[in-house]
């Protein structure tokens, strides 16, 4: 009888339900493993897409796709950088990221100025904007900013500066449903990108921060003033060598 009782006791011990603390530890381990696998998957996909788009033109972007569904289509045709007037590339650099050739994806001086002024205006580089436009979504969420911060150095490592400018010019929004410099040049001025003048290029660059509320063809006084500043800036970076990384 004693042996039978002992056998029953062992059976009960084996089938005993884990304690709440043990269950919590197990759950935490599963969550950590799941999160780690997700991070690895996102990292692997990011690396693959960065490598892919270094040589293949992105067929669309998340924002372009979203706008296409909303509007029933968008106007965008890819054009190689050598078929764009050089002053256009210089104009967007002068307008958005004058130190483009001198940083590795983040302009630390601009970030410090922005923090001191209590604003992020002017702190985002062309490299960051390209990453946002090509791989991510619009918005100011911490998740998007974190992904942008992680992908930007990778793009700077794999892509050339010239490639970054080329992709940026081809995916930037210039008006509602108008994406890329080819569609923008024809939409506003009826010319191909290679024929853009310095004034036209400066006006296109001037509307980029808010393309749906500004017009390059019918510029407001503020856009005209900004365009003049950009035109002067484009000439300056051409003379002082700050355009060398994407013009060579």
How would you describe this structure to a colleague?
- It is a single chain.
- By secondary structure, the protein is mostly helical.
- The chain is 64% helix and 2% strand.
- It has twelve helices and two strands, in the order H-H-H-H-H-H-H-H-E-E-H-H-H-H.
- Strands 1-2 form a two-stranded antiparallel ribbon.
- Helix 6 packs across helix 8.
- The longest helix has 34 residues, at 20-53.
- The termini are far apart.
State the strand order across the main sheet: 1-2
> What does the overall shape look like?
elongated
SS field, number of helical segments: 12
Q: Kindly state the percentage of residues in helix.
A: 55-70%
Number of strands: 2
> N- to C-terminal separation?
94 Å
SSE sequence, one letter per element? HHHHHHHHEEHHHH
- Gyration radius over CA: 26 Å
**Major beta sheet summary:** 2 strands, antiparallel
Short characterization:
The chain is mainly alpha-helical and 248 residues long. The chain contains twelve helices and two strands; from the N terminus they run ααααααααββαααα. 64% of the residues lie in helices and 2% in strands.
Please describe the structure with a list of short key phrases separated by commas or semicolons:
mainly alpha, 12 helices
